[in-house]
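Reply to dn_fold:

You asked what the input looked like. This is it:
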Amino acid sequence: MSVPPKPAVDPFDQLIPMHLRLDAQGRVTHVGPSLAKLAPQARLVGRGVSELLAIRRPAGLSSDAAIMRAEGRTLHVTLRAGHGTRMRGQLVRLGSGAILNLSLALSELSDLSRYRLTCTDFAPTDMTIDMLYLVEAKSAAMAESRQLIQRLEGARLTAEAQAFTDTLTGLRNRRALDQVLHRMIEQKRPFAITHLDLDLFKQVNDTLGHAAGDHVLRKVACILLNSTRNTDLVARVGGDEFTILLDGLVDHAALRSSGARIIERLEAPIDYAGTVCRISASLGTTTSDLYARPNPGQMLEDADRALYVAKRLGRAQQVFHGAGGNASLPTRHAS
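and this is what came back:
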């Protein structure tokens, strides 16, 4: 059985795969294989060249006949079918017809994926291949640059988070407290400051060691977070000292209730390796409405002064700073 001969390969399809072959009237008789990929659903053969291409420059080439007379001139065109691809071309008369060789405009080279074109779709001598390598190199460099920027941004955010976070408890630290406190004052928002110091904590450290103390501090952090609102800020500002900013809350009755709840929860036994740890807390509170012009340093000092009054009165106390810098009568938690 004889094997049928392979169809002859069109030399123009190999040498200039993105071309149109035109008859004497300017109708398309053949489409190069690469050009056909730009408009795979469109019927190109048999149509006039002016139906397929909109000539942007030179002006005035709006008919098949005018395009056929443009031999040797650089044509800037848009393929009407498909994605409206911008191209450049040059027409050469061949016998009674012509060959219109086309290439992609530079603006189209950045997104060849939508055309499903590769380097094999261009003539080996086409400068487009060199441009494609440059575009690919640029895309790779841009991708690497974006990844580097993302890594740097992630590192920056991590560093910022660490700078404002207490490493032992995960609470905010004094730096974060100062930032939020200044912002609240600038925005003239009402708020309260409660300074809290643990009672009996030294006894835990002295009898069970610092590992037990660290365990208790982490438990205290969880209790304080669970006893406050999402809008409040809880910060560890010292070894066993904490400060709470209560946003929008200046009512003493509500603050007294909140303080009593915190003290009650902190007095619950804390287990450490089978040993029960017992602590309590003293609280000093001041509110922004006591000041004509709230000052961060003054308010923190007043809350701290109220805390020391509570400490002198015994454990499980909450003392409120009063107008004129005097501490009000303490609120004792019934233990």
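Residues 110 and 136 are 8 Å apart (CA to CA).
Hope that clears it up.
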